[in-house]
Design goal:
Blueprint: E1 6-10, H1 15-19, E2 39-44, H2 60-82, E3 103-109, E4 114-121, E5 127-135, E6 152-153, E7 167-170, E8 173-180, E9 183-196, E10 199-213, E11 222-224, H3 232-235, H4 237-240, E12 243-247, E13 258-262, E14 272-277, E15 286-288, E16 290-295, E17 298-299, H5 304-307, E18 316-319, E19 326-328, H6 330-343, E20 350-352, E21 355-359, E22 368-372, E23 375-379, H7 381-384, E24 385-387, E25 394-396, E26 398-400, E27 409-412, H8 414-417, E28 420-425, E29 430-435
Parallel strand pairs: 1-2, 4-11, 5-10, 18-27, 19-26
Antiparallel strand pairs: 1-13, 2-3, 3-4, 3-9, 6-9, 7-8, 8-9, 9-10, 12-13, 12-28, 14-15, 14-29, 15-18, 16-17, 16-22, 20-21, 21-25, 22-23, 24-25, 28-29
Length: about 450
């Protein structure tokens, strides 16, 4: 049987949408286009096409600071889970910090179908949606199991009941509790028909949320693209062979379109790979072996131990679509930052929030190359610099990993991935990266 392929159109990394959020009041006519064939559109959560975007416009600086706060919370969340700890993430006082994925996708659930805009997260597995009667769910749009003829609960004896965190049994039905960012959710393990564009996935196992606390839960739920047993990659293995790739467009593009391809069909042939590494304590994360970083032509001095993979502590490097700006462990970031500043010939340095290497004069940045086992990924200026809309401030769009938690995890984030095809080939335990103009 031919391996199906799902091509998902993206509406962008969309930092530009954030920087020009005053335009969001006018809905882009492209937003109303229906899914068709095997094409399913994905929206940035803050895009004009997203009903979940902020209601008020933000200045450029406010937008950057907000994204930094969200990234900071996400890094804390990923670091704690990478270390296998169950504790909740500390939330900064006096500010609402949201640990939220960047993209949402339209998913049809049930028979007849009910449309949910679910967040897509490459670092989580289980899908979950707010259901009728949920206490504390942040969205007025909920899934109603009573209206679906194909809905069923999952019993305590089912294998899936042992694959969710903290399973419990009330009668014969399986329930579970989990933390997500600074939130907790309680859900009933359920199954129903999930339809992605024209691709039906029967008996998809997901959590039907009954109670939620905190501000981290994506309003209409989450669809996990990690590599654990309850992720889309695993549950639709017969359909997509545990293979997918995406290409995120430049946030400066006016076209706002990229693609997510599920299945081995249509994936690039000319692409370099690096091995995927397994952390049994955090099986969903896509770990890779980062062995060095080059700024311009110089390989900066980073102690090998700072980049080493350690499944016991969670140390290492991951690819993550939900973090906006790359975070490097402190020794790696300091080495990159210092060499970057040296290349700027001592131009005056300023800061903006968590960005400590900003300039108010025009600069020409060197390339930065991530050196992985088996492949190098060289980033041009568009992937490493963030500019204010007025052109008065330019910052190196990277930062050090948070130092108030287990700060051993480096994250290659979505801005640094833009205009690259990132191919996750789980059966062959490898990830590939190739330059591609997505815009």
């Amino acid at each position: 049987m031919r391996t199906p392929q799902l091509v998902i159109s993206l509406l962008s990394l969309s930092l530009l949408f954030l920087f020009h959020s005053s335009r969001a009041a006018t809905l882009d006519p492209r937003c109303s286009a229906a899914d068709h064939g095997s094409n399913l559109r994905v929206f940035h959560v803050n895009s004009p096409c997203s009903p979940l975007r902020p209601a008020t416009g933000l200045s450029w600086a406010e937008s950057v600071l907000r994204m930094q706060a969200e990234d900071q919370a996400r890094l804390q969340f990923l670091s704690i889970l990478a270390d296998g700890k169950k504790s909740s993430v500390p939330i900064a006082s006096g500010r609402q910090i949201i640990q939220s994925p960047t993209y949402i996708v339209r998913v049809q659930i049930g028979t007849p179908a009910q449309t949910m805009l679910m967040a897509v997260d490459t670092s989580n597995d289980a899908a979950w949606v707010p259901c009728t009667g949920c206490v504390g769910c942040p969205s007025s749009t909920v899934f109603d199991p009573a209206k679906s003829s194909s809905f069923k609960t999952v019993g305590c004896q089912a294998a899936q009941c042992q694959q969710v965190p903290n399973p419990t049994c009330g009668g014969s039905a399986c329930s579970f509790n989990m933390s997500y960012g600074g939130s907790t959710i309680a859900a009933n393990l359920s199954q129903d028909l999930f339809t992605l564009a024209a691709d039906p996935i029967p008996n998809y196992t997901f959590g039907c949320i009954q109670k939620a606390t905190g501000s981290s839960v994506p309003p209409q739920g989450l669809l996990g693209l990690g590599r654990g047993p309850l992720s889309l990659v695993s549950q639709a293995q017969s359909l997509y062979k545990s293979t997918f790739s995406y290409c995120l467009p430049s946030f400066k593009s006016l076209n706002f379109s990229g693609s997510l391809r599920l299945g081995p069909v249509g994936q690039p042939i000319r692409i370099k790979f690096t091995p995927l590494l397994k952390n049994p304590r955090r099986s969903s994360l896509y770990y890779v072996n980062l062995v060095g970083i080059r700024v311009g032509s110089k390989v900066v001095d980073i102690p090998p131990a700072a980049l080493a993979f350690n499944p016991t502590t969670g140390a290492g490097t991951i690819f993550d679509s939900g973090t906006v700006f790359t975070r490097l462990v402190a020794p790696a970031y300091v080495a990159v930052r210092d060499e970057f500043r040296k290349r700027m010939k001592n131009a005056p340095v300023t800061s903006l929030g968590g960005f400590d290497t900003c300039y108010s004069v025009p600069i020409v940045a060197p390339t930065i190359t991530f050196m992985f086992s088996g492949m190098n990924v060289t980033l041009p200026q568009d992937n490493i610099l963030i500019h204010s809309t007025a052109g008065s401030i330019t910052c190196l769009a990277m930062a050090a990993a948070p130092d108030n938690v287990n700060s051993v995890l480096s994250v290659i984030a979505s801005m640094q991935q833009q205009n690259h095809r990132i191919l996750f080939d789980v059966p062959n335990s490898r990830v590939g990266v190739a330059r591609e103009t997505c815009s």
